[in-house]
Amino acid sequence: MPRLSASSILPEGITRPGFDRQALKPGILHLGLGAFHRAHQAVYTDAALGEDFGAWGIVGVSLRSVDVVHDLAAQDGLYSVITRSAAGDRPQVVGSIVKGLSGAENREEILALMADPAIRIVTMTVTEKAYGLDPATGGLDRNHPAVAADLAAPQAPVGVVGYIVEGLARRRDAGLSPFTVLCCDNLPTNGRIVRRLVIEMAGARDPALANWIAGEGAFPSSMVDRIVPAATEETRARARNLLGVEDRLALDTEPFMQWVIEDHFTLGRPRWEAGGALFVDDVEPYEKMKLRLLNGSHSMMAYLGQMKGLTYIRDVIAVPEYHDAVRRHMAAVLETLDPVPGVDLAAYQDQLIARFSNPGVAHLTRQVAMDGSQKLPPRIMTPAVEELSRGKDASAFAYVAAVWLAYLMRVDDINDPRAAELKAAAARSTPDDPSAPFFELPGLFPQPLVKNRAWRDLVNAEIARL
Question: pLDDT value at position 135?
Answer without folding.
Answer: 85
